[in-house]
Structure formats: C-alpha cells, structure tokens
Fold this protein.
Amino acid sequence: MSGAAAALLGVAALVVPAVPADAATGGTTPPPTPGELIPGQRTATPALVEGIREPAPDAPNAVGAARAHLAEQRGRYRIANPERDLEPAGTVTTDGGHEIVRLRQEHRGVPVLGGQYVVRMEKRDGERVVTGTSGRYFTGLRTGTTAEVDDALAVERAVDAVRSELGAQDFTAYAEDGAEDATPFTGTSHGLVVLPTGTGVLTRHVTVRGEHPAGGEPVLREVYVDAGAGYPVLHYSGIKTFGAPGTAAGTTAGTAPGTAARTAVEGNAADRPARRADAAGSGVKLDGRTVGLEVTLDETRGAHVLRDRSRADQETGRPVLSTWDARGRQVTDVAGQWPADMQEFASPTPDFGAEATEAGAVDAHWAAGQVYDWFKDKQGRDSLDGRGLSVDSLVGVTNYGQPYVNAFWDGAKMVYGTGDAEYRPLSAGLDVVGHEMTHGVIDHSADLVYAGQSGALNEAIADYFGNAVETDVYGVPMDDPEAGLLGERLCRTRTPGECALRDLNDGRTTAKSFLGVGFGTDSGGVHLNSTIFSGALWDIREDLGAELTDRVVYKALTEYLTPLDGFTQGRDAVVAAARATGVDGQDLNAVVRAFNAHGIVANWELALGVDSDLLLERVNTSDSRLGAGGDWWVASSSNEAGTEAYSVWAGRTDGTGRLKLMSPNDGRYHVNPATDGRTVVWAAYGSGPVEVLARPLAGGPVQKLWSGRDVGSSMAVEGDTVAFEHHNHGGRRGVTYLSLENPAGKVSVGGGTYRRASFPSLSDGRVVYQDYRRVRATYAYSTRIIDVATGEDTLLHRSESTTSLGPTAVNGRYAYWLANEVRGDGRTLLRRAALDGSGVVDLSPETGPNALNVFDVTASENTVTAGARTGDPAIRNESLAKLWQFSGDDGTRGRVSCNRGEQLSAAAATGTRVVWLDATTGISQVVTRARPSGTCD
C-alpha cells in the first residue's frame, strides 16, 4: 500500500474528523448548537459545519454565492482564494428551495484527488441563506506542479505495475505456447492530479485497461504515477462489481435464518400498469412471473426492441432505458468501452419470449424501470445523474465463452453476466440491479473513491439502496429475517440464505470484523468491509422505518458526503442529514446507537489487536517487498504523510537499536530491498533508467550495480553476489547475477522472445530460478539452478507446458518453488527438491483437503515460509493471505501469526523468525514473530 494510498484511502481517510465525545462513548447526541463544527484532521478547514443560518453574499448564481460565503468566512474555513482554487463540480436544486453546491479543489490549477467542498443553502424570495458546509479541502498542499515524467513513461510504468501485480498473483510469467508478446494492457493518460497527502504528491493519472492474464476477467485500473520519479504510488479498480472479483457469486458471509420462498409477496409493484410506450410489451422473468415491459417498435430493424421511452422528457428526449444484447461478447470487450455493432434486445412481437428470458434481458429491462421509478418517486431524482441520464444495461456477457457470474457498473453502464448452472444471470436480482444503478447515483453525487474505506462506503450505500428498492418493490417487511439478504434470488436450487452474497442483518458486521488488506485485494476491502457500514444503515431503517431512513441516507449521500470520506465521516454525514431532516429525540438516538453498535466510533481502528511485534509503523509504500538476512531486516518506507519518495531502512529483527537509512534522499523511489545481514541491495526508480544499488550495512558509499528498463521484485544478495529479475520491453523477463566487486561482469539469462527467466533466489553460491524456453518446435518449462562460481546451469525439475511456475527460495540443503498444475482450481503447490534435483516432494500439494493457494515463499536454513490463501471463496478473515511455516524436512506446517487482516511479503530471518508486512489495521506495518503461533482457532 503506497504512502498516498495508506494516508488517503486506508482505514482512515486523509482527513478524519473528530466524532463528538458522546458518540464515542455510546451516549446520546444533543441538538447542535449554532455553528457547530467538526474539525478536519491535518487540515485547517472544518470537515463539517452545521446548525448555522448565515445570509449568503449577493451573487448571480449559487456557485458564486457559495464561493463568496467561504471567502467571507475565511477565518472559519481557511480557504485562501475560493474563486481561484474551487471549481464548480455540480449544483443540485431541490423542490424545497435547497441548493447544494459542490466545489472541486485545485492546487495551482491542477485537480486534487478527492478534494471537494460542499456548501448547502436555502433560497427563498431570491435570498440565499447558508445552512451548512462539509467536505475535504486540503490546506497543507505545497507541492510543485511541473512534471518531470512525460505521459509515455507514466503509461509504461502504470502498465508495468498492473501487469506485475496481476502476473505475480497467478505466476503468469510467460505467454502460453510461445504466444506473441503483445501486452494484454493499454494505458491512457488523463493529465496531472495532486494526491492530497501531507504537502501533496504530483502524479499523472493513467487508466489501464485489459484482461487478467490468468482468468481473462476485465481489468480497469486507475493508476497514479509520481510525476517526478515515474513510480506508481496508488492504483485501484475502476470497475464496481456486485461480488468481490475472483469469488463466485455464491459467496456468502453466513447462512441467514429463514429460507421460505417469497412467491406470495412478489406481485406488488411488478403488476403495476405499464406507462405509455411505443408499444406495451411483456416478458417472463427468470422466476417465472410475467411482467409488463415498455418497448419500442424499431422500424429500421422491423422488430420490437427493449427501449423504454415512456419516462423521457418531451424536450430532451431523455432518459431512455435500453437493454442491449451482449451475448457472445467477452466481458473484457465491454468493460470501460462500448462494443461495436451491439444492438438492443429484439423480438418480432411486443411479447418477448424465452430467449430474452434466459439471457436475463427481461429481468434487466423490468428492473431498470423499477429502480428508476423508485429513485424518482421516493427521492425526486431523475435518473442516475439527476438530470435524465439514459440508462443502458448489457446482458449475457461471458468470460471467453465460460459463464461470467458477476455484474458491474463501469462508470457509464450496467453489465450483467450469464450466470452458470447454479446462478441465474445476475440481472435476476432486483437488489443487484439496484446496487449497480446506485453506483451510478454515487458517481454523480458524492463520487466516493472506490478503494479502502471510501470504497467500502461506496459499496455499503449501493447495497443499502439496492436492498431498499427490492424490499419496497416486492413488499418485503423489514422484520422478515431475509429482508437484509443481497443476491438471495439468484440461485436456481439453493435457499435464499445459502445463496446470498451479503447479509445486512448479520450481527458480525461490526468494526471488530474489519479485514485489513492491501489495495491488490478487493481494492482495499471494498466488499469485505462494506457491511460494517451498511449493517448500521439497515438497523436504522428497521428502527426509523423505510421512508424516513431512505430520505436521510439519500440526503447524506447527495448533500454531505465527498469522495474521500470513510466510516466516521459517513457516520457524521448521516447524523447531520438526520438532524436536517427533522429527526430528533429518541429517533436521533436510534441513529447514533446503530453506529455505536457496529463499532463506528472515534478511533475505532485502534481496537484491532495483533499478536506480532512492531518493527516499523506506517510503511506507506506501494508494491515493495521486505528483505531479511542474519539479524537484520530491510524495508522501503515513505514519511508518515506518504508525501516523500520512498527510502530504504534497515533494522534489527529483535527490534533493538536504531533504524539505519540506507538509500540516498534523491527524489527517486528506492524499493524492493534485500539483505544478507552485511549488504543491502535495492532498486531505484526515477525519471530515467531503473538502477540496482547497493550499500554496506556498516556504512559507506552507495554503489550502482546495473541500470535498465525495469526490475522485478525478486532480489537477493549473499556475500559478493547479487541476483535479481529484470524486464525488457513487452514484459520479457530475465535473471541477472553479478559480483559486488565487479558488477560489469554480469551474467544474464532469459529476457528474450524465445527464452524467459524469472523469480530468482540466492543462497550458498547458487541461484535458483524458473525457466521457459523454446526447444525446437515446443516450449520447455523448468526450475533450474546455477552454480555462481563455475557458471554451471543445470536442470532441477522439468514441468509440463500447462504448468505455471512461481517464486523460488533456496538454502544450503533444498530448493523450493511454487507451481500451478491445475488451472482454475484456486490452488497452487509448494514443492521441494534437493540441490541435485533428487527427492522431489510437495510440502503443500495442490489437491486434497488441506491444499492452499500459495503465492509467495521464503526460506531460512531450517524452515520455509509461504504466503497463502486457503482458497475458500467465503468473504472472511480466514480466506485472506496468511503466512504458513513448514519444517524444511518433514513439511509439518503451522500458522506464523493469527493476526486478522492480510499478511504479505514474508522474509525469513534466522531460525523460525519471520518478518512481514501486516495490514490488519488497514495501514501496512513491518512486524515480526520469533516463532510460529501454530494454530489459529
């Protein structure tokens, strides 16, 4: 997790407002005093001001009045020049005469990610009164705005970062069967953006598109590359899915009580008379019920199509609700782009038949109308953007001909997968459709950044309104034990409780259940942690009733929340919106109690305990590994605010003594360090070539060993020898080893079209690596070992061409490596062999009841430690990345630590001691244990 990411989007957003003391202690919330203000953290601008009624200065429009108010009250807001630094980001005027003005922060003309301030006003008889403000304006920004890195290098580094992250997860080091080297990713630069951490980080924003190199799933990543050194400091998903990527739609947080069918209550809104359309059509939903559809006779096609014009304004002709036939389209072809020659689903008559039913088109079209009507009738919102935006739904997409069991909003449209033998097409869930369309509403209001806590808040609100629509349309009472289930109607045979992906009534959805993960996992836990907040909202709906709570949550979303808000800011927004809606007394107490019950109180993150010893707090780096050797560990870290380029630090594994700064403070990013306890080596990223550097732990000058296009994360040093992975253009991997005394005499293998090498490890004068080469007309995959003294390169083990080979580790007795022999099974193996290739044994087999999905490996003289996931698709602590330690001889295994949250980048020290990056608190920390914890019950 980067410095920008950790400070910006981790457990706490960059600006964490204080929660009133009574809220933190579980008491009641008194009415606000005039001008009550919640200060922002690390900024002089308040996060929330409510309870005021101040005449706005005269101005020709709402934006001018809002800016003038901020300028007039400069002592309160500390915004030096609102006219210069705040650009209009949208104004909403409600039927009650309220004006909500959103203003986007710029720093010296460059947009600030998530910097947004909201001014709320009432306008009566031509006079405006300011009633409150909220948001994030970052007063401490000082960064320059001149980039040293051009678009081309930023795109190259962004693509490399995404390719490396995804490839490392699935060992996709090589193209299969000698395929050409065209990268599966492309990048588009969107210009400069300031990340508002500390004094600010100037970046280039790049969108990377493509497909996952292993599973073929769509990849749409928003990447921010430091504009001074060209290092990616933040990246997260631009696709908002219903289910967490990489999991089956059937993933559930637990079976809920009560599984009775609901056919008796499903007829309410579905049987409303259809609004006038070009033709009154019908269709059969996947649950077997016939519903009315608004359709259009397309004379050019000579067919009726799923195009609903019944809600369109006569002047604008919008919105139009269209359902498109995407059958046979790959999900990667539609994510973030509009496929060519796609047409709306058609039928020769207004009555759509079985084909439209089975594709999920009937459900998608009907449900889009229901969700549109709910927001229009209940909240007065005209479509997703509030201004009549047309709604497009694509149905029937596949994953390279295989079932795609998910749905997503990509910023412009909804996309629904085919489903599979158990799961219907995802449009069969009205709550799914409501969820995805709510993402569109969020994008056009609070625009919550889809990563970390703000991303979990985004998912929580989408879940809340998706489920609210379903319960209202189907007439499900709030006390129904299944009312809080999401996705429960998707299954063909499973009961609702078994089928549901999430349960808003699950009593475990509290801050104590928070799962700290890096941004490479579920974009920082956006699905994993969403029910902490949505569960609180659902409790409020049960206590205050549907109509009032829906109005309060909608008001909080559209009038209070801003892009970087997390859980505590979300709480403040809902409480303030409740007050503004007239909620008081016991009802307001119920709102506060719901958040208290879910643990959303001030400084809730501090209650997340660990069983490890802290070595370095707030690492604040992105995609950088740890190293260990002898009694020392090394790590890359930024400053606490995450604004400085990364430096390499070294410390003793027992935590004694002072840390040593190893790298120069030269504006470059110094990452992926390794040590043998005497020397530290690492890679340095700047605006020029990437360099491999070295320095003795005892001190002395920094030595340049190598320079080139890119360096992988696998790096090792032992005595006079350094080994590392490098990348040529097109991602062609190679392995280089060299002498500290004579680096010019380097030896490189792989890096070409017909031979690749990757994942080197080094010990006792030997380099172990993975090799892929063309032999005659076929390709050979093998694990090999080089004797550095003699240069002899010999085969350890040959693998089948269908096997993906992963990271290696080596000590004086054995070589260890990871492999994936059965594609798509969610498991990998950990294999061991003697250094002559004999005695091959799987310490962790790929099959069997205890099989793991091992993705990382590190070895000491007597043990081998693996980073692994259980392969369990359930969304819970146990399915996250954990560390397992195996005896080097008999393979006996145990858990290194029982910490909640993700455990990454293990580095074996002496004996059984392991150093790793722990994300339990949501912000990565270097921690250690001297011995494994064994079992974690």
Observations:
- Residues 10-34, 173-182, 247-277 have pLDDT under 50 and may be disordered.
- The domain at 263-606 is CATH 3.10.170.10 (Elastase; domain 1).
- Residues 670 and 716 are 15 Å apart (CA to CA).
